[in-house]
């Protein structure tokens, strides 16, 4: 494709981007397409520059110098500073001064500049806010819950208390000189307390010796995957113990809205019963006057595949939009953190939430600790020793919590056997 055609296509995608500002998924997809086009245009421009240089005389006449097209700047890859910093600290065995020297030797000049406050508790390191912010930006789209763009609030002192309206005020018409009935709101409270999420990532010492962007990206991606997987499990179904968040599933348990917003699948799955149950979840939010401005579905992969393959009596897909990750006009996310072995061993759950009422509190700094001798358990729960495996173990700690500004903003369908 010619460079002019690419530029025309980019202009069209920019127009589409402006029209998609209210659809987060469509906006992100178009934004990625624009970034890809920028890269392709930049490569074309470099090729044109190379040809111009090749055909240029050794001493061009004054005023006839070839004009080199401006090169489009490639968008910065988020989180690489975090990956580079983590590898430098790990390669230095946790010694900050040595890490500075390692960073300089690998070409990361100034990576630790003006960061004298790096030292954290117990020999760990506090990653600066601007670097931690890049990683947090990656955690949000990678997490199922946070990809729905809930309300993010800082937790600078480790906790935050907000008022929650359980029953709103009412208004009434009145006659002349008549008193207005005093009807106040019944308030509850949302308490967010920092919950520590720790992720262990073992890194090959051979990889630590490699000064490359690919190595930084690998370390960064391993950390993001490890943290978001556990984060979603807590945000969706966390038990709310002393150390773990209370997930959306359990926010309603024991509340006044448990009876209206925790529902059970009506009958054996069919197109009629599935449609009815989806409507029941939506109605639960509507009856509570939830605006439904930023709603989304969370389900298990099994449930998603059932809805995608469900057909009507004529063989047509019942919900064709599911293939575009939408259901009844609302985006879908699926995750294995929604179990499929509940109840009799085959049951699952389906969640519908208006994420404009979901609040996620975050501390902005991420804490790192390094060890070349630590033991850890792998994915198979087998105990491994980093020293004998020639690895360095990096532990990252992030602090956050989740709450609901309005409890009935979540509806749950239990006993789901769709696709079982």
Summary?
The protein is of the alpha+beta class and 420 residues long. Helices cover 35% and strands 22% of the residues.
Task: Provide the descriptors you would attach to this structure in a database record.
420 residues, 22% strand, globular, alpha+beta, 16 strands
Structural features, described:
Helices cover 35% and strands 22% of the residues. The two termini are 47 Å apart. It has eleven helices and 16 strands. The chain has a domain at 3-55. The protein is of the alpha+beta class. Strands 1, 2, 5, 11, 12 and 15 form a six-stranded mixed beta sheet that branches. Strands 6-16-10-7-9-8 form a six-stranded mixed beta sheet. β13 (375-377) and β14 form a beta hairpin. It is globular. It has helices at residues 3-19, 24-55, 80-91, 96-105, 129-142, 205-208, 213-237, 248-251, 258-261, 271-287, 301-309, and strands at residues 125-127, 151-154, 159-167, 186-193, 195-204, 262-264, 295-299, 326-327, 330-334, 348-354, 358-362, 366-371, 375-377, 383-385, 391-404, 410-416. α3 (80-91) packs across α4. Mean pLDDT is 80; it is low at 52-75.
